[in-house]
Design brief:
The structure is a homodimer of 380-residue chains. With 380 residues, the first copy, chain A, is of the alpha/beta class. The first copy, chain A, has 14 helices and eleven strands. In chain A, α5 packs parallel to α13 and α8 packs across α9. Chain A is elongated and about 90 Å long. A six-stranded mixed β-sheet of chain A has the order 7-6-8-9-10-11, with helices on both faces. In chain A, 40% of the residues lie in helices and 14% in strands. The first copy, chain A, has three domains: 70 residues, lambda repressor-like DNA-binding domains (434 Repressor (Amino-terminal Domain)); 116 residues, Response regulator (Rossmann fold, 3-Layer(aba) Sandwich); 123 residues, Rossmann fold (3-Layer(aba) Sandwich). At the A-B interface, α4, α5, β2, α6 and β5 of A face α4, α5, β2, α6 and β5 of B. β2 of chain A pairs antiparallel with β2 of chain B, so a sheet runs across the interface. The first copy, chain A, binds a DNA duplex (16 and 16 nucleotides) through α2 and α4.
Chain lengths: 380, 380
DNA sequence: TTGTACGCGTTATCAG
DNA sequence: CTGATAACGCGTACAA
């Protein structure tokens, strides 16, 4: 049987489009069934304990029988809570994000929150549009590597709780991986291999993280007395990396850091296509350790980012703002710092920044992953 | 300055947690400002045209001034519409899905819908949980490669509009890529290279698409008089592919199809690790053409799926159910088939399946991408 | 502990 | 064409 049409199922049977899937049960229905008042039902279901054990049971049974399900919109109206959080990433197709996404999604699901996803396609404008749309619906928002200006982010943060990933903005909560450790290892390794001149292929201009990585590398190179230069900047994609190949090839550096793995892969492949052999003639180091970075030949040396943890942590942090009460969901129990920003009043000026539990920090640090794309420096 | 703490921003300034971001304007506010009745405002804003031009203008101006924004929850209460659709994928970290996700997200955003994302982590149970949670919130749902049983899917479809990707279930709308063309090309190619015995590494038991691909391959092999056997089945991941290596190695087949690229990559790498050279001793063919499939050595030959289009099309189709009115958003203008399932009454039995515009079909077909992992059959 | 009554922001159904 | 008014489903002071 040929099977070409892509739209429909078995012929003869129409696709069922439930116009009005029988109106699901309300607390009124269950109140009637249990012989109590709707408000009692509401109490029993939302704050267990403020109702007698037997009525509680009756209500629960009735709810079960009618397989009741709260109407979150009706609930959202009086409370403003939606049990939903948003996540905006700059590029869904960048594998670096899907670990973040999964981390956030998993953490959200485990706390009975639902995740809304949007992407900005590397555009500040799109990002703002998506953010605004989401803000109407969501209890809080996570911005991963946002391209927005600081003021725009603060503006958003004034409306709903916001947590940033890999970005710092005054007055806004943020989770950022510590680049220092990984970079220190990486530069030390390169130095040991005889490299003395390094270059950095930067990411987008608006990328806070790209600047941050540059700074870290710069600091370590200075320390080792190595020369560092930025040779280019472009889209954080494979194509962006390819575009940088020409400049890199003409440079004198014997090793190059790329803003991320995507660029590193693009750069490497383009260079190889032009006849330069990696790592004999040039060492290449990426960032993030994304899916596929070990598929290349040679496999990519890179600085691994705690992507998954970034997502999980950001979500936990966001939920702390939204539900100041519970401490659940945080995997590592940080030292002892109990009071977070959650308990401080709206405009309170507390020193919430002081807490940096040892465990949590370790979990968010970067780490060198040595593979085949780096090696000894070519003779001068 | 050392930069180790991952949680907070600049010291001295507390993180702002807007308890009550100034209650945004309601239609009452704008009614007062425009000197009309709230209900008139509602009309003017929701169904333009049913109000006089001048009051319309006054209202629009007032709304602009107060930068009014509908409260979607309040709206959802009477109407049931949320301007939100859900997408559930089986594995967020599978690159095959992110093109689908992006396609759906983009299409949704362009129609002013927001996308909710969840994953089932290859578990039917998780999938059901996620689906139920979403059902309460969304106007419709897309299930990409669901692991649910047919009855469960029909059960869901009875409540809200649902569109399946790469899965067929009686009575439920679905978008599936046509495997035939790509497979035909692939098998023909293998036959020309002298292969006479092929094997198939299957995906999960519950994967409808895995069975479908097997059938397509089987049909073509029969046609060419080639021998085909299924050697294994497992998780559709790199690891799953690795696990199949042992069995494949002992088999007599000189070429192997894998359920997807992830498995193909895993299989290839494991085999190479065991000393077998690809494609000299064994040809490997993947499915989907995911990100990274061209990074391997040799680069993977594969059958490309129209991932992005799958996402876009599924979303458009879903919206046709939700908003039967508009035809926008469909990129390719199909031949002439105007009437869709949208106009049929709830329980109507129409032959909605007959329409299969030429353009749309072509866009969803698969295609052979020949790279280095396939070659001439090894001598018997 | 439980019932009463009202508000949340919109849409929808009536009259006028 | 426009103005009242009643839902929509739930939370919650307040009273009993």
């Amino acid at each position: 049987m040929t099977d070409t049409n892509q739209t429909d199922a078995v012929p003869g049977r129409a696709i069922t489009t439930p116009r009005s899937g029988k109106a699901s049960a309300t607390i009124y229905d269950i109140a009637a069934l249990a012989g109590v008042n709707p408000s009692t039902v509401s109490r029993a279901l939302s704050k267990p304990g403020r109702v007698s054990a037997k009525t509680q049971q009756k209500i629960l049974d009735a709810a079960e029988e009618l397989n009741y399900q709260v109407n979150i919109f009706a609930r959202a109206l009086p409370t403003g809570r939606t049990q939903t959080v948003g996540l905006i990433v700059s590029d869904i197709t960048n594998p670096a994000f899907f670990d973040i996404i999964r981390g956030a999604e998993t953490a959200a699901a485990s706390r009975d929150y639902t995740l809304m996803l949007a992407e900005s396609t590397e555009s500040a404008e799109h990002e703002m549009t998506a953010a605004k749309r989401m803000l109407a619906t969501v209890d809080g928002l996570i911005l991963a590597s946002p391209r927005l200006a600081n003021e725009e982010i603060q503006e958003l943060a004034a409306k709903k709780p916001i947590v940033l990933i890999n970005r710092r903005v005054d007055g806004v909560a943020s989770i950022v991986a510590d680049t220092e450790t990984g970079v220190a290892e990486a530069v030390r390794h390169l130095a040991a291999q005889g490299h003395t001149s390094i270059s950095y292929v930067a990411g987008p201009e608006r990328s806070w993280m790209s600047a941050r990585r540059w700074e870290s590398i710069k600091a370590r190179c200075d320390w080792h007395g190595m020369k560092l230069s930025q040779v280019a900047s472009g889209m954080p994609t494979v194509e962006g990396g390819r575009r940088a190949a020409a400049v890199v090839k003409d440079g004198e550096a014997t090793a190059v850091f790329c803003y991320n793995d995507l660029m590193a892969i693009g750069l490497m492949r383009e260079l190889q296509g032009a006849g330069v052999s990696i790592p004999e003639q040039l060492s290449i180091m990426g960032f993030d350790n994304i899916f596929g970075s070990d598929f290349t030949t040679p496999p990519l040396s890179t600085i691994k980012s705690p992507l998954h943890e970034l997502g999980v942590t950001a979500l936990s942090r966001l939920l702390e703002f939204i539900v100041p009460g519970d401490q659940a969901g945080v995997v590592e129990s940080s030292a002892g710092t109990a009071a977070g920003a959650g308990t401080t009043a709206p405009g309170a000026v507390g020193q919430a920044g002081a807490e940096a539990g040892g465990a949590a920090v370790a979990a968010l640090s970067t780490e060198l992953v040595l593979r085949g794309s780096t090696g000894a420096a070519r003779p001068a």
